[in-house]
UniProtKB/TrEMBL annotation:
This is Bifunctional uridylyltransferase/uridylyl-removing enzyme. Its cofactor is Mg(2+). Residues 1-322 are annotated as: Uridylyltransferase. PANTHER family: BIFUNCTIONAL URIDYLYLTRANSFERASE/URIDYLYL-REMOVING ENZYME, BIFUNCTIONAL URIDYLYLTRANSFERASE_URIDYLYL-REMOVING ENZYME. Uridylyltransferase (UTase) activity is inhibited by glutamine, while glutamine activates uridylyl-removing (UR) activity.
Length: 860
């Protein structure tokens, strides 16, 4: 008969656990010693489990064994407790009931128990089929009960384990885990345990070492010659930082939380004694410390795993081939011919990366070579950087036909790139809380260089064929790659990073002996790398005067092509969600129209341009089998402004759809899939009515469709002819025909009713914006021609934002002539062309700005 537990006993253990955790938190706030905290947390759990075991009179009938992180005495404050209850073969019903009572009591006490209840044979069968279970069992510690069962478990594990198979399985498991976390340590909410460079990478090394009989501590690896004393010090330092972070996360969240989520980053940073500065939040400083610790772990993981592998595979036959007096190949890897090559010939550091570029069949450096290179990084100093031979080697990497991105990533991972380019060293691990970059600055730059190189690779010509053609025709493309490398290198210094980066780029190009025209190009691209995307997404790129101003700024075709390619690569390198085909079409249209403008000497001939556009529209109408002259009825009601604002495809579509409804009394709403194949184009044609723009925005806001672009036009006979580019929600996976039918019917019905306009409801802001808010900015100014006013808004995005802006404008009887909606992740940069009497009155215009600002503050 099992002994029941009283409520008083459970309450006593629950209070002991609560007080123990409170003491741990108090001590850690003073001492910051993670090993002490983990050991005391382990001891506290040990005591309670033993007391419950004894209270249930389980005695020697089974064994309680700590496994996993709990087994190695690394219990974090709120981690689950890995407990194995090892049963004898054929346990009786009374024992099973007592064990069930044990597990239930531990949960009642407040422990999250990740338990397994198995016999010895069941343990071995499970371990044979699951590497995770085998690893968990490998780290075991007897707590209480039948010690003989525990001894038998270790004996069978030792006989069962195959070090080579274990190594292969753990290496594959690590690759799978890294892939799950996007393969880089630099996502904005990393998991300090599981992400690349996290604690799990360190544990993987020790698991393999223990399974191989080489020891289960850093000290043992030093004694075994796997690890140097210096490497051990660096590992312990990074491990200490990651353990502190994980403890702080648990204590701050008051639960098991291993992710550095936005909600906790600032609070954890304050626990570390970090403070906000004028240029950087405390959380950004904390995250850079994390990224650098994770990078060091990744570096040493990349050195130690191959070293362990070479120890396990020491009997493998060596196949070698001499490359030159310093390097040879060894079993498909690059190896130095003498251990002191990097020490005696430091330029060999760069030569090694260049050789890996030229020999893609090589998978990397051999373990000994990699270790020697890593320890020789200190040779990269001012004299090294000034050496013309080293400069030539580094520059040659950018001129090679393949392998640049892989080479730069390797150099960054092992700290070589940051030493050769000190400015680069300052951006490693630097966060970007601008709500659209999902990578740190260094990782973003490498993504941009990767994107540029993909344009040049035949294997990726199908992705962006137009960009691939331009790059393959581009003379000396290394200038473009260098511009990509330097375009954001001055971020985080304060001031305009584009201007600051220009000086870095020019100095580099001059010292590395680039031709004068390439020096000027690289410097100019770094300074102007944001210009083309801003013009394409904020200005009317179908207006010849806009194109003329951009052409004057660009100057020549080579600069235009380089800026276009860099802009596409840059936007694509911010986040998978920021780039879309619509933005790609805007950039391509701006490129082609600017190219034509430059071919004409940069001169605007508005009449010729408009006639060309009309003729192109007529040709499109004929291809659609629309009879000759049908378009004239509509076109008589349209002035030059209309033809300036719309491209030929839109002009033709409008004429084809509206030629029979030019004088209609009922609203006409037509929609089609956009030419970019992302979202839909919506045409609204109706006798003008009050608050029309606000009603349309309200409709799309309620349906959670996002307006990306709006062209508002009023015909000579008082009709609104408005065109919207609309994105549907990301989760939409239905038939676009149903969507188009819905929009056409429901929006037309809404405009027919003309119900009183009501303020639209807002939506929830996302977590990123909540913890890293954008201070809203509103400005109203006359446009360059004095015909309209330009409203510019910068704020954080949320559902219904545009509808609320339109509602405020309608209250002041201000009409919208066009709208450019630029959404970058959670950051919105919108521009509106406005008309209205309130705008010409300074006092009323100021009042409008204030109300818009109030509305945006509420949105945040």
């Amino acid at each position: 008969m099992n002994t029941p537990l009283s409520a008083e006993q459970l309450a006593s253990w629950r209070e002991k656990l609560k007080q123990g955790r409170e003491k741990l938190a108090e001590h850690f706030a003073r001492q910051r010693d993670p090993r002490w905290v983990m050991k005391r947390a382990t001891d506290m759990v040990d005591v309670i489990i033993r007391e419950v075991w004894q209270a249930l009179a389980l005695g020697e009938r089974a064994a309680a064994i700590a496994v996993g992180g709990y087994g190695r005495a690394q219990q974090f404050p709120h981690s689950d407790i890995d407990l194995l209850v090892l049963l004898p073969e054929n346990p009786d019903q009374a024992l099973s009931a007592a064990v069930e009572q044990l597990i239930g009591a531990l949960w009642d006490v407040g422990m999250e128990v990740g338990h397994s209840v198995r016999t010895l044979s069941e343990c071995m069968a499970e371990a044979a089929g699951d590497i995770t279970i085998e690893t968990t069992l490998l780290e075991n510690r007897w707590l209480i009960g039948n010690a003989q069962l525990h001894t038998a478990l270790n004996q069978q594990l030792e006989a069962h384990i195959d070090p080579v198979a274990f190594f292969e399985a753990k290496q594959f498991e690590q690759q799978q885990r890294h892939n799950k976390y996007f393969g880089v340590a630099n996502n904005l909410e990393p998991n300090v345990k599981e992400s690349p460079g996290g604690l799990r990478d360190l544990q993987t090394i020790l698991w393999i070492s223990k399974a191989s009989g080489l020891g289960d501590s850093w000290g043992a690896l030093v004694e075994g010659g796997i690890l140097t004393a210096q490497e051990a010090r660096l590992i312990r330092h990074s491990e200490h930082q990651l353990q502190c972070l994980r403890i702080d996360l648990h204590l701050t969240a008051k639960r098991r939380e291993d992710r550095l989520i936005f909600d906790l980053q600032q609070q954890v940073a304050l626990r570390w004694g970090l403070q906000d500065s004028p240029s950087r939040r405390a959380s950004e400083q904390l995250m850079q410390l994390y990224y650098r610790a994770a990078r060091l772990v990744s570096q040493l993981n990349g050195i130690l795993l191959p070293n362990l592998k070479s120890r396990l595979y020491s009997q493998v036959r060596q196949v070698s081939h001499v490359l030159n007096e310093r390097f040879r190949t060894l079993n498909g890897m690059l190896a130095v011919r003498r251990p002191d090559v990097f020490e005696k010939t430091p330029s060999a550091i760069l030569e090694g990366f260049l050789l890996l570029q030229r020999h893609p069949e090589l998978t990397g450096f051999t373990p000994k070579t990699l270790r020697a290179l890593w320890h020789a990084r200190g040779k990269i100093n001012g004299a090294f950087r000034r050496d013309p031979a080293n400069q030539a080697l580094f520059l040659q990497m950018f001129r090679e036909p393949a392998g640049l991105t892989r080479g730069l990533r390797r150099m960054n991972l092992y700290g070589v790139l940051g030493r050769y380019l000190p400015a680069w060293g300052r951006i490693v691990g630097q966060m970007q809380h601008d709500l659209f970059h999902v990578y740190t600055v260094d990782e973003h730059i490498l993504m941009v260089v990767r994107n540029l190189r993909r344009f040049a690779s035949p294997a990726f010509n199908h992705e962006y064929p137009f960009c691939s053609k331009l790059l393959n025709d581009f003379e000396r493309p290394e200038a473009l790659y260098l511009a990509g490398l330097f375009h954001d290198i001055a971020k985080g210094r304060g001031g305009d990073h584009s201007k600051l980066g220009m000086a870095d780029a020019r100095e580099f190009c001059q010292t590395h002996g680039l031709p004068p025209e390439d020096i000027d190009l690289v410097e100019w691209l770094v300074g102007e790398h944001l210009t083309m995307s801003a013009v394409a997404q904020k200005e009317d790129i179908y207006d010849p005067e806009t194109v003329q101003a951009f052409a004057e700024r660009v100057g020549d075709v080579r600069r235009l092509t380089a800026l276009y390619l860099l802009s596409v690569a840059d936007i694509r390198g911010t986040s998978p969600k920021v780039w879309n085909a619509w933005k790609g079409k805007l950039l391509e249209d701006l490129y082609t129209s600017t190219l034509r403008m430059l071919a004409r000497g940069g001169q605007v001939d508005t009449e010729s341009e408009l006639e060309e556009r009309r003729n192109e529209a007529r040709n499109l109408l004929r291809l659609s089998l629309v009879p000759d002259g049908v378009e004239e009825k509509l076109w008589k009601q349209l002035d030059t402004v209309y033809f300036l604002r719309h491209e030929a495809r839109e002009i033709a579509w409008h004429a084809r759809v509206l030629n029979r409804f030019v004088d209609t009394d009922a609203p006409i709403v037509k929609a089609r899939i956009s030419t970019s194949k992302e979202g839909i184009k919506v045409l609204v044609y109706t006798p003008d009515q009050p608050d029309l723009f606000a009603r349309i925005c309200g409709f799309f806001g309620r349906t959670h469709y996002s307006i990306a672009d709006a062209k508002i036009y009023t015909t000579r006979h008082g009709y609104a002819l408005d065109t919207f580019h609309v994105f549907v929600p990301e989760h939409f996976d239905g038939d676009y025909r149903d969507l188009i039918n819905y929009v056409e019917f429901e929006l037309a019905a809404l405009l027919t009713r003309q119900a009183p306009l009501a303020p639209p409801s807002g939506g929830r802001i996302n977590r990123h914006l909540k913890y890293f808010p954008i201070e809203p900015q509103v400005s109203i100014r006359p446009d360059d021609r004095g015909n309209y006013h330009v409203l510019s808004i910068v704020t954080g995005d949320r559902p219904g934002l545009l509808a609320r802006i339109a509602w405020v404008l309608s209250r002041h009887q201000v009409s919208v002539q066009s709208a450019k909606i630029m959404t970058l992740g959670s950051r919105v940069e919108d521009s509106f062309l406005l008309q209205g009497g309130a705008l010409n009155d300074a006092k009323r215009a100021l009042q409008l700005e204030g109300e818009l600002l109030d509305e945006l503050q509420l949105q945040g």
